[in-house]
């Protein structure tokens, strides 16, 4: 009954989305005003029903109901509970229902709490959101039903992909999806404002918290996904430029550009058309990513193996939504005034340059991701790897960081370039000092890591400049948020550059008792022992790492074997062991045994890395997200204060 109830709730929620769409469209075409009163409650009910349906899907996974096809294909009664729950979205159908749930709840929140827009603009926004939901309801109900029953229930399920049986699955996809769907709300705001021609500060202020919240979750999702791949896949890297990694990065770049642009529109009433266009681009990139992951066009450890028919369905949805929004923008573009003018040397000018660089990097990453598809369609197999991205995106990213340094130091509307230079000496000195030290003592370093660490020094010092000569206790939270986020960029950049410049690697076949040196560590291989996990068996290696100071640490990498279930083949995975020190991480992977000869004991392949400052990458990502969260909280406080003051003025106006 649970599966049938979940499917029924999805159909009812789809009907409510259809009601919102029709009632909103008729109201906007000068229909009866009573129609507007249907849109808000229908949007709220749709979100609630979709969330209940998703909760029922999780219940089916928790109960290991193998009569449901999705559970049988992606779960097993032996799995730990956390992976049963996370398995509900560790597959195509479940992840799409999660997407739709977040989309529905977002529309419900807009309907309940948005008070700043005119009624017609709000109804247009909710109508656009209903149109998005309806397309995904059709996709789910007609081609990806998560509640489909099997004619005969198997005795047990096939289990979840072993690579996904990690705590990262519980956090990485949901945070990314919240980020993606937040951009869909920004898209709906943009479409609503275009329909009613209300493109100005009020529209931007309504959109800004959604863009900021979306970008926070995208940052957390990408950071968590990077660390998950780093320790789970056993290859020792923090970013592979994998196609699916790229399609999470692309919306993040678009969101970063939109975040800065919407701030200018909200505070200075400028860049109106640019803000609307970036809102469309941001959600478009989310749709492109969804299509790539689920179409089967590109091979990735992250992608879902999905038949081409589903990819075609998504392609049609993408064409309808993106094409429709771009057509509307083209029709309305002539009526969208750019607002107040500003000089190139101004904070607005720096944000425009910042956005142009972000969108250029976005275009280059998108080109590298899609080019292999186009080449293969023309009969030629081409792979685009890290060298392309590092060479084309790396230099632009460094220039972007330098422009980011200048922005907070400039005045709004117009500033004097000479004053800017007078504010930069501490930052320039910091960057020069780092560069000088690396050239003298760093040894042979590539030009990009060398420049990266130097620019990180500039950004770290300049990011603190907005706090100079201020009363820190009275500094607004949004300012603290900007400072912390920009400082996080410097930390992450330093980690990326230092890891690339100074990484040390050893690949050996060691017998028990042998010692291997990597960087300043002496690593003794003590041997292996069999261990049993909840649903796997493993060989656990034991390594003792000793520092020059005599401190010893034990690392226990594992080579795990997951049994084949219900006709599937057994799967072997590597579980890396990490030793985190202030200066970096020692990363160890246990490989295959090498049989000994002439009675000698077996040797085991060991792969050891010393990765300087690598953990700064994820620390920087966390600081960026925390800074954005402080800005969001600060904006909410300012909004609450503004509402209280407006209410007091209204009381005074009508007081006897």
Automatic annotation (TrEMBL):
The keyword Nucleotidyltransferase does not apply. The chain crosses the membrane at residues 6-30, 42-62, 122-142, 177-197, 209-229, 249-266, 273-293, 313-331, 352-373, 393-412, 424-441, 447-468, 480-498, 613-633. Keywords: Cell inner membrane, Cell membrane, Cytochrome c-type biogenesis, Lyase, Membrane, Transmembrane, Transmembrane helix. It comes from the Bacteria. Residues 315-635 form the Cytochrome c-type biogenesis protein CcmF C-terminal domain. Residues 89-296 form the Cytochrome c assembly protein domain. Its main location: membrane. The keyword Cell inner membrane applies. Belongs to the CcmF/CycK/Ccl1/NrfE/CcsA family. This is Heme lyase CcmF/NrfE family subunit. It comes from Sphingopyxis jiangsuensis.
């Amino acid at each position: 009954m649970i599966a049938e109830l979940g499917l029924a709730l999805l159909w009812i929620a789809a009907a409510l989305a259809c009601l919102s769409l029709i009632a909103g469209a008729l109201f906007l075409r000068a229909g009866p005003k009573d129609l507007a009163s249907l849109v808000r409650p229908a949007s709220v009910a749709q979100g609630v029903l979709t969330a209940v349906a998703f909760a029922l899907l999780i219940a089916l996974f928790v109960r290991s109901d193998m009569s449901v096809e999705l559970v049988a294909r992606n779960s097993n009664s032996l799995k730990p509970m956390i992976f049963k729950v996370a398995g509900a979205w560790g597959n195509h159908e479940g992840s799409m229902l999660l997407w739709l749930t977040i989309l529905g709840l977002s529309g419900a929140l807009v309907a309940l709490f948005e008070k700043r827009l005119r009624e017609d603009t709000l109804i247009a926004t909710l109508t656009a959101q209903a149109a998005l939901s309806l397309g995904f309801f059709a996709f789910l109900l007609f081609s990806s039903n998560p509640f489909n029953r099997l004619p005969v229930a198997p005795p047990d399920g096939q289990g979840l992909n072993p690579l996904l049986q990690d705590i990262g699955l519980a956090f990485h996809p949901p945070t990314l999806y919240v980020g993606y769907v937040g951009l869909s709300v920004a898209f709906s705001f943009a479409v609503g404002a275009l329909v009613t021609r209300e493109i100005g500060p009020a529209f931007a202020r309504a959109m800004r918290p959604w863009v900021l919240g979306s970008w926070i979750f995208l940052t957390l999702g990408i950071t968590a996904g990077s660390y998950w791949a780093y320790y789970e896949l056993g290859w020792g890297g923090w970013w592979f430029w994998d196609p699916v990694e790229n399609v999470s990065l692309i919306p993040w770049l678009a969101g970063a550009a939109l975040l800065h642009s919407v701030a200018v529109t909200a505070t200075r009433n400028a860049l109106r058309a640019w803000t609307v266009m970036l809102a469309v681009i941001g959600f478009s990139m989310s749709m492109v990513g969804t299509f790539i992951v689920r179409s089967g066009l590109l091979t990735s450890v992250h992608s879902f193996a999905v038949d081409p028919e589903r990819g075609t369905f998504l392609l049609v949805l993408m064409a309808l939504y993106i094409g429709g929004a771009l057509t509307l923008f083209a029709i309305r573009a002539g009526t969208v005034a750019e607002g107040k003018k500003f000089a190139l040397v101004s904070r607005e000018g720096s944000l425009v340059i910042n956005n142009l660089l972000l969108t250029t990097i976005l275009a280059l990453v998108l080109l590298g991701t899609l080019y292999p598809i186009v080449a293969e369609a023309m009969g030629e197999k081409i792979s685009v790897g890290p060298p392309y991205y590092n060479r084309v995106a790396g230099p632009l990213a460094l220039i972007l960081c330098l422009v980011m340094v200048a922005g907070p130091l400039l005045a709004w509307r117009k500033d004097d370039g000479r004053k800017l230079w007078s504010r930069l000496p501490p930052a320039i000195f910091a960057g020069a000092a780092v560069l000088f030290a690396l050239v003298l003592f760093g040894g042979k370093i590539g030009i990009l890591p060398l420049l990266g660490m130097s620019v990180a020094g500039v950004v770290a010092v300049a990011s603190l400049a907005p706090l100079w000569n201020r009363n820190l206790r009275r500094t607004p939270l949004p300012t603290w948020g900007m400072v912390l986020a920009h400082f996080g960029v410097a930390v992450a950049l330093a980690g990326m550059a230092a890891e690339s410049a100074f990484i040390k690697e050893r690949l050996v076949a060691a017998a028990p008792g042998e010692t291997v040196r990597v960087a300043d560590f002496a690593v003794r291989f003590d041997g292996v022992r069999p261990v049993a996990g909840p649903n796997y068996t493993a060989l656990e290696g034991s390594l003792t790492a000793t520092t020059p100071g005599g401190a010893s640490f034990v690392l226990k990498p594992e080579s795990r074997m997951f049994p084949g279930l219900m006709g599937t083949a057994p799967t072997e995975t590597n579980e890396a062991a990490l030793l985190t020190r202030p200066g970096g991480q020692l990363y160890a992977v246990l490989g295959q045994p090498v049989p000994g000869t002439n009675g000698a004991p077996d040797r085991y392949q060991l792969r050891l890395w010393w990765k300087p400052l690598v953990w700064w990458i994820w620390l920087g990502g966390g600081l960026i997200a925390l800074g954005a969260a402080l800005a969001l909280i600060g904006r909410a406080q300012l909004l609450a204060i503004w509402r209280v003051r407006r209410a007091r003025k209204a009381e005074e106006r009508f007081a006897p």
